[in-house]
UniProtKB/TrEMBL annotation:
Acts as a component of the CCR4-NOT core complex, which in the nucleus seems to be a general transcription factor, and in the cytoplasm the major mRNA deadenylase involved in mRNA turnover. The NOT protein subcomplex negatively regulates the basal and activated transcription of many genes. Preferentially affects TC-type TATA element-dependent transcription. Could directly or indirectly inhibit component(s) of the general transcription machinery. GO terms for biological process: negative regulation of translation; nuclear-transcribed mRNA poly(A) tail shortening. Residues 647-867 form the CCR4-NOT transcription complex subunit 1 CAF1-binding domain. It is found in: Nucleus. Its main location: nucleus. The gene is cnot1_0. Pfam families: CNOT1_CAF1_bind, CNOT1_HEAT, CNOT1_TTP_bind, DUF3819. This is General negative regulator of transcription subunit 1. Keywords: Nucleus, Repressor, Transcription, Transcription regulation. Residues 955-1094 form the CCR4-NOT transcription complex subunit domain. Residues 594-628 are annotated as: Disordered. GO terms for molecular function: molecular adaptor activity.
């Protein structure tokens, strides 16, 4: 049979199915009938499958929802030919007629495989290998790239990964989350990227280039790392994109450090070439290169490369910033490379000298970084110490003379003192004999090879300190000097050696072996290390030291308070308990807070700043522990909740290991971490673990709830899960009974987080919340009576939001509907705060329910909230329900009742025995929850200020926290007031002008067009000046508290404020716009509903006997007893010219 005949035969099946249409696969019998007198082979079935995928929504009947029944077709095909091989069927899709036009096509393709091979993964390799018909292949690759992970997860295939799973745990903790997110994307499949790249140069090359451009803007990280791993270079497109993407990350990107670190592992030569090219174009870019290399922790590796001028310039800058021991590095390179490296150093110094001489003479020279005096001295000292031929000695002497002429200050005699002056407290360098230094080096070598423990080393030092033998005393002094002098290089130590050093340092502090003069420097060293990201080696070094001397914390009250402010320590129970216990003891010994400087702090600067430990920290108090809550909100709460513990506490090392496992938990390593955790945990310590997980993790880390729930699922210990749930109930009740819950936003945030967690563990998993554990309905009603709805509504909404994931607790579940109806009644209660209404709206929206369609309960009508005479509330029916006009308040009455509930004048609410007054900020809590991080990442920093930030990281944190604090103090109240004014004004105007307009869409468009520019302009004008003043005041006062001169602090603060005012105003504009739309829609909800009801009624009556529309809500505005002339009286809706006036608001803005 000829090839042409064979192709004709294979097309018969697809043609016959196409002629008969969708009903040909309605049943298996119909499909068998269509296959009669047709040969069913792999080829014919493949062509028929291509036709089915191509026409699944194009034939007659598709508009009515008809389509091919793929499973009937496959079942019939196998009945006709049991020898069909579906792998071959998919392989033969390499044909001109095959094409995926939408995601449904890929879904049909995968379903066809799953019907035949239920338990086998989809063979993506078929579509990743070279095809003849590239258009069809490209359509499949495109759909795979953007397919949902539920349909097809490319990370589960056997293809190589761009970011392998085993690489992520080896990354620094600060990079793991970003790496995990990237690794979960479809493009993480290297085979998929390579297949797309192979199509460049074919007939779909334009489509491939467009797709690569799209990927470069969406996921440049994966594209960069993937293209770097595909070697050799495939084609011109590959060659073009590599340097383009590399330049993007070298110039600056949010994930630059992550990409650079991964590139160093997969393609170091490519990264080095990028650095060299960048340096060739602009020698001053060495500063940027050093920043990138330091973030990625690869400086040491780059300095080993054989590119002399570049590495010497980089090493000089690193030494200038005190990130490299230049003397040690030069000696090591000279010992390794000998005279060749000596020549490179001399050439480097000669070129730098020539450039500087030309610059001083006024000539145009290539911009480059100058060498510092200290770096020049180190170069000449090290080079001159080597034995040299006479010619080289003379050359070096001449070069030294030239530098002396350029920089006369090199002639100044300076003592050889360490760069880190703080570590040398006496101010002079102590000289020890070679024998003593050799012995100290030998002991440190034994410590780092684990031949001697840190505790044993400390015992030796303790004995030497009090010895009568001068050599032993010198050994002690030399060890202490070496340890503190090396502190500036700790960040470059390998992790194991650094941990041993931290343990030794902590033991020396604990055993009083460090002198008083050196103690301040040592404690500061530990404190600075603890400010590094959690999980980094410097943070672990600080932890290792702190654990050793935690029993001495009571000696340093202010130092302990500074430790309590460090967020990262909250994941370490032993440290948290030590700090909390210390603060509690200090509170008992020092009830007036004098030891901690808590007695008199009334200046505004002290209220807005974070003063050093020598200064007063906050306003007067009778309880020092309570003051510590402001610095570390959870320390005291943890003490209260665990004071009556009845569970068994595991050993300290077990606690530390569990904290380490939880700290490093991620979606990719949950299985391995859970297996280790299961071995560590004993049934007797489940209570402790539950308390630790709920209080120290869940309550303050809402973003990790899914991770912790996944951990419990992986542990698969039902009793442990029940213990965790019971612990959650316990802490929810603890917070509900707290005296501070009404006026403490931090406590309410804890409560909301616990509510979210409880809903995830119960309702989302179809487990009931028993009445005896927590009655949501009773909680709402009692909170209504006590005026504590600000506590109850967010909690209940957070719990119920998980009903969206439940199979049982969904409408019309009686328990759920009962709670929702109570919330609906609260929603329509007059005087309920906007942020609480918003919580209820979010809940209904998440459950895909319409608040207007739920009939509220009437149980609140019989209840009276506290101080009912001043805070009268009356339930209102939802929009759309007929209202008796006789019950409508007059404008005067409404204004009077609305003035009865201002937050500033609300009566105190009695909880227990403590009168607690609601704070004004409570009404703005919904505004205070916005994410300010994107703005901080885009702050404009003046180069001079940026240089100061690099040299003094404390300035950077002070600036960022100052901007955030000023924004939080100034903006929310102004937005609340401005948007409220704009919404009320818009509502009154709209109701008047649109009283006869029956179209709610036009009503909404006009309202939005008017309220947005009105609210934004008012907000920005009101906020701009106080925000600028607040930023300057807070930043300058904080910087002065940190020890900066007043003039410099004010200059930095003014520069930051002036350069970022416009950026902040743009952000304020966006927030005001969103808030104004919410407010005006909420205000006009009854007007929208009345128009919808009118239209439905009109449709039912088919236009007969209907009166023209008139919105009775408009009667609530201006007095209507005034008779307007006909030309001004609203009738027949709003004309186009009138409507254009509203649309012009946006143009004016």
């Amino acid at each position: 049979m000829s090839k042409k005949t064979a192709n004709s035969e294979s097309l018969l099946l697809s043609k016959k199915l196409l002629e008969e249409g969708y009903h040909a696969t309605s049943t298996v019998n119909d499909a068998l009938t269509a296959m009669e007198q047709v040969e069913v082979t792999d080829e014919s079935v493949s062509r028929a499958l291509a036709m089915i995928i191509r026409t699944h929504a194009k034939l007659q009947g598709s508009a009515e929802g008809q389509t091919w029944q793929l499973h009937h077709f496959i079942q019939a095909a196998y009945l006709k030919n049991p020898r069909l091989n579906w792998f071959t069927v998919l392989s033969k899709l390499d044909q001109a007629e095959f094409m995926l036009y939408d995601p449904v096509g890929l879904q049909l393709l995968i379903q066809s495989w799953q019907f035949v091979h239920k338990d086998e993964p989809f063979p993506v390799q078929i579509f990743l290998q070279p095809w003849m018909h590239v258009r069809g292949q490209f359509s499949v690759l495109f759909c795979m790239l953007y397919a949902s992970r539920e349909l097809l997860d490319m990370n589960q295939t056997n293809s190589r990964k761009v970011i392998p799973e085993d690489v992520i745990p080896a990354l620094p903790v600060s990079m793991r989350q970003a790496a995990s997110q990237l690794a979960s994307q479809q493009l993480n499949c290297l085979g998929l990227l390579e297949a797309i790249l192979n199509l460049a140069g074919t007939m779909v090359s334009d489509d491939v280039r467009a797709l690569m451009d799209r990927l470069a803007s969406q996921t440049p990280e994966l594209l960069m790392i993937g293209l770097a791993q595909i070697q050799p270079i495939k084609n011109e497109l590959h060659r073009t994109f590599l340097p383009k993407l590399l330049n993007l990350f070298l110039m600056g990107h949010v994930n630059s450090s992550l990409v650079v670190r991964l590139l160093w592992h997969v393609q170091p030569n490519l990264l080095l070439e990028g650095f060299f090219e960048m340096y060739k174009k602009d020698p001053t870019s060495v500063s940027r290169i050093l920043d990138i290399a330091q973030e990625a922790k690869i400086v040491v590796h780059i300095l080993k490369t054989d590119v002399p001028f570049f590495t010497l310039d980089l090493a000089s800058l690193a030494a200038r910033r005190q990130n490299l021991n230049l003397e040690k590095w030069l000696m090591e390179r000279l010992a390794k490379d000998g005279f060749a490296f000596f020549g490179s150093c001399v050439d480097f110094l000669e070129k730098k000298c020539a450039i500087e001489m030309a610059r001083q003479s006024g000539a145009n020279v290539i911009p480059n970084l100058q060498l510092s005096m200290d770096v020049i001295r180190v170069f000449f000292r090290i080079l001159s110490e080597r034995p040299l031929p006479p010619a080289e000695t003379a050359k070096l002497a001449k070069l030294s003379q030239l530098y002396t002429q350029l920089y006369p200050q090199l002639n100044e005699q300076r003592p050889d003192k360490p760069a880190m002056s703080e570590s040398n407290v006496e101010g002079e360098r102590t000289v020890f004999s070679d024998e003593v230094e050799e012995m100290v080096g030998l002991y440190f070598e034994r410590l780092y090879t684990q031949d001697i423990s840190a505790s044993r080393f400390a015992s030796v030092l303790k004995a030497c300190r009090t010895s009568n033998d001068q050599r032993q005393v010198n050994f002690f002094s030399c060890t202490m000097h070496t340890l503190l002098d090396e502190a500036r290089f700790f960040s470059q130590y390998p992790e194991n050696e650094l941990m041993a050093t931290g343990e030794l340092l902590g033991l020396l502090i604990d055993q009083h072996l460090i002198s008083f003069a050196q103690l301040r420097v040592t404690l500061k060293l530990v404190l600075d290390a603890l400010k590094y990201p959690v999980g980094s080696k410097m943070f672990n070094f600080g932890m290792q030291a702190l654990v050793q001397f935690r029993n001495r914390l009571y000696e340093w009250p202010q130092y302990t308070l500074l430790l309590s402010k460090i967020e990262g320590l909250r994941g370490y129970p032993v440290i948290v308990e030590s700090i909390a216990t210390t603060l509690k003891q200090l509170a008992q010994k020092d009830p007036d807070g004098k030891l901690m400087g808590l007695a008199n702090a009334n200046s505004p600067q002290q209220r807005h700043a974070s003063p050093p430990p020598q200064q007063q920290l906050s306003e007067g108090s009778n309880d020092t522990v309570e003051k510590s809550v402001e610095a570390a909100p959870n320390v005291t709460t943890l003490l209260k909740s665990s004071s009556n513990q009845s569970y068994e506490t595991p050993p300290d090392k077990t606690q530390e290991r569990i904290a380490f496992l939880i700290n490093n938990l991620s979606a990719s390593n949950t299985k391995s971490k859970s297996s280790e955790l299961k071995q560590i945990l004993q049934a007797s310590t489940w209570g402790w673990f539950s308390h630790y997980l709920v209080v120290r993790r869940v309550s303050i880390e809402p973003n990790n709830h899914e991770l912790y729930a996944g951990l419990l699922d992986e542990l698969d210990l039902q009793d442990l899960t029940e213990t965790v749930i019971e612990e959650t109930y316990t802490n929810i009740h603890l917070l509900l009974q707290s005296d501070s819950i009404v006026h403490s936003s931090s406590d309410r945030n804890l409560l909301k987080n616990l509510g979210t967690w409880l809903g995830r563990l119960t309702i989302a998993k179809n487990k009931p919340i028993r009445h005896k554990d927590l009655s949501l309905k009773d909680l709402l009603t009692s909170s209504y009576e006590k005026n504590q709805l600000i506590v109850a509504i967010p909690l209940v909404c957070k719990i119920l939001q998980h009903a969206a994931y439940s199979k049982i607790f969904k409408p019309p579940n009686p328990w759920l509907m009962g709670n929702l109806k109570v919330l609906a009644e609260l929603y329509w209660t007059e005087g309920l705060k906007l942020n609480l209404k918003f919580e209820i709206e979010l809940l209904y929206r998440g459950l895909e329910m319409d608040l207007n369609e739920i009939e509220p309960t009437s149980i609140l009508a019989s209840l009276k909230p506290a101080q009912a005479s001043q805070a009268h509330q009356s339930p209102l029916p939802p929009p759309g329900i007929a209202i008796d006009r006789s019950t409508i308040h007059s404008p005067a009455t409404s204004q009077k009742s609305s003035r009865a509930l201002p937050m500033e004048e609300a009566p105190p609410v009695v909880v227990g025995n403590n009168p607690l007054a609601p704070t004004p900020s409570a009404s703005n809590s919904s505004l205070a929850d916005f994410d300010f991080t994107p703005v901080l990442s885009k702050l404009q920093i003046n180069p001079a200020v940026g240089q100061l930030m690099m040299q003094h990281p404390l300035i950077k944190s002070t600036v960022y926290s100052g901007v955030s604090e000023a924004f939080a103090d100034v903006v929310p109240n102004i937005i609340q007031t401005s948007t409220n004014i704009a919404a009320v004004s818009t509502k009154e105007m709209i109701l008047k002008d649109f009283a006869t307009e029956p179209d709610e869409i036009r009503l909404r468009r006009a309202a939005h067009a008017m309220v947005q520019p009105l609210a934004c302009s008012l907000t920005v004008v009101s906020a701009k000046e106080p925000l600028c003043s607040g930023i300057i005041s807070i930043i300058s006062s904080n910087l002065i508290q940190q020890g900066l001169p007043e003039l410099l602090a004010e200059e930095i603060a003014t520069t930051i404020a002036n350069e970022n005012t416009e950026l902040l105003c743009m952000f304020i504009d966006q927030i005001a716009k969103t808030k104004a739309l919410e407010d005006v829609d909420r205000a006009l909800a009854p007007a929208y509903a009345s128009r919808i009801a009118y239209r439905k009624q009109q449709q039912q009556m088919q236009g007969g006997g209907m009166q023209p529309f008139f919105d009775t809500l408009s009667l609530n505005g201006a007095p209507h007893q005034i008779q307007l002339p006909d030309i001004l009286r609203p009738m027949h809706g709003v004309s186009p010219d009138q409507f254009r006036l509203y649309e012009s608001f946006d143009q004016r803005s």
